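Task: encode each sequence below as structure tokens.

Item 1
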Amino acid sequence: MMDAPTWRVGWRCLLLLAFVGSTRSEGVQSCEEVRKLFQWRLVGAVKGLPDSPRAGSDLQVCISEKPTCCTRKMEERYHIVAREDMQQALQTSSSTLKFLISRNAAAFQETLETLIRQAENYTSILFCNTYRNMALDAAAAVQEFFTDVGLYLFGADVNPEEFVNRFFDSLFPLVYNYLINPGVTDSSLEYSECIRMARRDISPFGNIPKRVMGQMGRSLLPSRTLLQALNLGIEVINTTDHLHVSKECGRALLRMQYCPHCQGLMLSKPCMGYCLNVMRGCLAHMAELNPHWHAYIRSLEELSDAMHGTYDIEHVLLNFHLLVNDAVMQAHLDGQKLSEQVNKICGRPIRTPTQSPRCSFDGSKEKHGMKISLRNGEETLASRRKEFINSLRLHRTFYGALADQLCVNDLAAADGLPCWNGEDIVKSYTQPVVGNGIKAQSGNPEVKVKGTDPVINQIIDKLKHVIQLLQGRSPKPDKWELQMGSGGGIIEQISGDCDDEDGCGGSGSGEVKRTLKVTDYPWLLKTTGWHLKLVSLLVGSRCLRQHYHW
């Protein structure tokens, strides 16, 4: 079977040869042109094709009082081809939409993978540049944390609260050994484990772990849900691209598209009303997807619009190292008190001299460092998401308008031209034209629609489920202020628009913006396979550093 573009070009060439007399309904004198088209469409000669018109008493669908150039076997073959044409038409119609979603789903996933590695890079540089003594020991905890972030984003069953706690549990023994009691320490695993277990009771990092949990939960979950929803969108399109053609629909398609050939009317096109009745009948079940598809795109749009500030994963991940620094500084400042608490819980350490390990971070990365510059409108994850949603919005009525588009764009004759009405060439179609959807088909004169389609019903159920997920993950503005801690705890403004009314005002509160060039870090390109000239990073928040008045 040849591809659709080649088939169309070849068929048009052959149709031009058959033009003379092929649009008249007086009856065909020879079946030569019908034979040519039939043989070419089937890619090879077929035995038993009539040379001249014959009685068509054996035909089941292409019944006519006039002599016919079709046999029963030709009709059966045309029936198969009509179904194949329908599948091809559906796939062609959805190709732009399918490519839009699949391309962006892949792009979002790759961007998130790159973003995770950039955030991990920032955190590693923080330890190498600021806390060099503990950098080697911290490397495993940093790597595990960002591995868990990726696993969660891409659908694994991991808990953000648990991996945030694990990170800070692992960090405390390092801070205690290298900053609070530097130089000499007990290197026993038992003592370090005791310190690690004591972290949640002592709270050496204040409420920063809770802030990280809140920010991770608010930003990771919407991004995870967005990826899941896009994958479902691809599944919906793949399913409808291979829609089962019912027996009634197959017969109607045969009558509309190929029965004219039997009478030598190879250039004829169906009347618009006739085509609409056939296609609306065939796609009646698919049209039931329309309100749910519309709601699906609207929910994606609402979720995307809400993903800003600390709901923006780019903002959160690329500021993670700043919160880690705040946590370490807080523990360092409270070192004497923490040392007394650890001594009470774990006892005094056996003080033995140790040699601080050197930073293991790649020197080439450290050499380049984090290049800071103002962003000049470079593409961010948020801007790409907005562009995608704007394009997707154009396809909100895809399933409701599909039957009409197929007729208007390709299948049906233009208004005012003679057309095929299922029996003959006429000036206009006189039967009533029904609407879209199952209920409207009760009066369809061309296709009988029975019952419901279990596959479509299953897709509708999946769409309803993901819509609930999308709506449940949309942050609500009235919940954007989160109280954490008590007695000097920080009030965190979750909205990304932090102004003087948020208590962030004053000079020096402007947002820090950083751009990390991928060309400065070849390992990013190697890891993700991206060939980007520049990856733009947004780092910082106007509300950070309040606690320490930096």
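Item 2
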Amino acid sequence: MASTTNSPSTLLTLPNFSIQTSTFLPKTSQRSIYKKKKPFNFNSKRVVSCKASNGKQNDAATSFLNRFDRRDILLGLGGSLYGATSLVRDPFALANPIEPDLSSCGESTVDTSKACMNVPCCPPKLKDSKIIDFEPPLGCKIRYRPAAHLVDRDYLYKFESAMERMKALPVDDPRNFMQQANIHCAYCNGAYSQVGFPDQKLEVHYSWLFFPFHRMYLYFFERILGKLIGDPDFAMPFWNWDSPCGMTMPQIYLDPYSPLYDENRNLEHQPDVLVNLNDGKSVVKQTNKKKDDFDELTKREQIKRNLSVMYQQMVRSSKTASCFHGAVYRAGCVSETDIGCTPEPRGGTIENGAHLAVHKFVGAKNPPYNEDMGNFYSAGRDPLFYAHHGNVDRMWNIWKTLPGKKRRDFDEKDWLNSSFLFYDENANMVRVKVRDCLDSKTLGYDYQSVDIPWLRSKPTPRRRRPRVAQGLDQGQDVAARRRSKNRRDFPIVLDRVAVRIEIPRLKKPKNKDDEEVLVLQNIQLDRNDSVQFDVSINDDEDDDNPCRPEDSEFVGSFTNIPHGDCHSEAMISTNLYLPLSEALEDLEIQREDSIVVTLVPKEGEVSIGNIKIDYVC
């Protein structure tokens, strides 16, 4: 809690919630991306080595996976609304934690390449210039956030009452529901500049700020709800989309007469359609089979696929902080040669995976903006957003309990000292640092204990290749089997058909704990486009039957949802890092000297500047 005194209030008793235990043909109809931005020089300094400078764990987290220049991501319109309340920092200081400059807050903008919209997202003006430093609550009992599909009627009544009161607050009250929704807009669509760097906009997605920001955003939202119903122990529900019984939109959010309802949702995905955690698209029903049999079959397949996606993103591909949290983001990255800056907006496995898939699944199909959950600026307007991010936050808790000595948060001061501004339950503005929110129990909450079935959902090979005869060189055998594979020159434009390319592997690393990683470099795309492609290795099937997340050959996906503003360059460039070590073991190809990478486009158009393999320690 912030260091303020709460007014006395009548407490309501929280009821117990009930628990039920190939030919490549570029798409000529689309605009060419090369008309917008020239391909990168792949020998330039923008290509960053995957090797750490020494053996320290945090050096691995800063070597290549997590540094980028924010000039290419989500810039926005400046302006001044808050006068003397700005924070001041020496721009030449060695430490560069991120801080929002409250005095710079201006309208956010939303761009779809065809239209531009200004959105007022800044918080109400401070009544005075006082900003309180956050203090975690002391000695409070732990409140447990329940799974949304398991709550009982008494809990639902209390939750709806709290949400109704939040929506009924005066529009200029910072605790009003729309004011709370605007927090996400302001931090995600360029309303704030960075303290000390007025021409550098702040963005909390696609970096190591993603989990801490959303944790504290939900924390204060929850505290406000509890305050409004006089229950400081109130805990919001989470959408348990990583478990089969929670893979549809929770029923409590689907009543049109409930304050939990939002009309800007995809009606085709209600009421009982399973979420697709890989790409956000629902199962397509076919009419040439018996409806009941086919639906049940596809449900079983989708559940299996979702569980495999979760295993992939939480276990197989997130063995380090930089893989799970995303790229380092330091203040004031104004030069490509600045220490800690590379042109690489990159989220972690969950942010780029299940998190974005659920946003796409829920958001309405109403171009050009796809509100509410389908666009960052409007996502907070849907009450389901907070249940969704509750489960995202739960993933952070679970990740730190999984086996692996590198599953630890960053220990860099620039991360720990980065800060955000929120209004608390008493309408006081509070400054929170990342170091304040590393443990949810320190904040006074945890999650209801539910089964985690994806821990038992390790992918399996589509087909085990015949073992190589003793004495036969595996590399020669691989080359002989793949002479017919497609060979491409870089850059590759990926828009309609799958592309295969053989990539040489490096010699074994000095450190046996180093993770072998597939690196897709200089991925260029329009930030305003929905984009997705899947990546697999050594998939010998034809293009009409690409491998899926339940297959060991599947190593990950790249996803983008529209997040542009009207004052940024439309084209962005990023990299994709996909850990390979476990996949190589499952496929029994650790000794091969090359792999064949298959890229399968699902939506949109991108170019890929280079593909290589490197090691991360």
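Check on item 2: The chain has eleven helices and 18 strands. The first helix runs from residue 57 to 63.
End of task.
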